[in-house]
UniProtKB/TrEMBL annotation:
Membrane topology qualifier: Multi-pass membrane protein
Protein's UniProt keywords contain Iron: no
Protein name per its UniProtKB record: Phospholipid-translocating p-type flippase family protein, putative
GO BP: any one term: phospholipid translocation
GO cellular component, one term: plasma membrane
Keyword Transmembrane helix: yes
Pfam families assigned to the protein according to its UniProt record, in alphabetical order: PhoLip_ATPase_C
Amino acid sequence: MYEVQELIENNLILVGATAIEDKMQDKVEETINDLKKAGIKIWVLTGDKVETAINIGLSCKLLSKNMNQYIVKLSGDFDQKLDENSIYIEVYQRLQDIYNQISYNRDKNGIILLNNSFIITGDALIYSTKGENKDLILKITNYCSSVLCCRVSPKQKQQIVTLVRDNNPKISTLAIGDGANDVNMINAAHIGVGILGIEGQQAARASDYAVGEFKFLKNLLFFHGRECYRRNTRLVCFSFIKIWFLIFLILFFFSIQVYDNEYQYKTLLQNKQNYYEQGIKNKLLNMKVFGYWIMNAFWQSIIITFFSYYTLESNFINSNGFTLNYWTDGALVLTIAIFIANLKVLIISFQYNLAYLLFIIISILYYIMMTKVIPFMFRQSDTYSVFNDILDCPNFYFGIILSIGSTSFLDYGIELWNRWNQDLQYRNNQKQKILQEYYD
């Protein structure tokens, strides 16, 4: 290859030259800095040569001068003199040296420092994603805050994303690009984001989300992404114990999922490090959270069963002279559960307005309407006239009040405690941050 270039590129007359302006978009530096503060590891995959890529990395604050830069690349002579097996061994030795250097770079507590950047070229990457080199490169990048891959092809971009995604199922990958050469990479990531720009719309069409500029990625992740994650975790947890009742909560819960925000837009953008890491570390949906919801459902079921049984025990005859049976107990349990489910959604919400109140009223009225319609659909069933019978019993309303008061009061107290504890942790983090900046 190099011999052919030297043979052809001789005694040429320069006829003209073309310059291509490829300016950096607005607020790229600020956006990358915010992403790093939120605990997101950034990999830049580019077709530029090493020197150009490093300069761009420094200008957008992806790299800094106080970082330890580890570069892996193959020179022209190196590639010509050695066969593939020899090159593989040389790359392995280079990666092993880098890993050893990173392992020795520790703080006072013995924790490996992350002030490292890893830079690798496309030709070296060919031999770095095979065999033992693949495991080494994953270990190295795990202790690097920034990774820069230069002179990589569109296929290699896809391979890199796939490598990271398949070897660590616990992490989520996001790929963002603006050109046709980024389409494979965008499709390989968990979440693909395309930038609508002068380089065409291929990337945007192949992506899950499209933004006008790179700076809008901050809004997509820190506000919309974080809030969608929080809402979905509540929906999943709520569905564990209330899935049957969603038919009576669909309007109210739909409005919560769309409009309920825990914090204002500016608050989430300014405190990205404290709030966005909840998704990275799975703080809102894990076995501990799952266990809490199951125990909460178990405790509520005990309360509902207790009050529904004992409130109707002393009233065995209805107004028509018929004896109440276990169907009436079941109707009371169902009614209590519907009310508690609506109040549960209201308690875990962070914003309250007239629309929420309206949806609660609609849900309850819908349930009352169904209690009137269902008996006529099953006239031969034992459930016929059950709801009409218990509506005449004063103890029915007494049981509802006791059950709802007991369960909702407990839920409200736990929710207040969790929110206070979260705010306390945030204030402590802010104090530590201020002290660290002061001593630094």
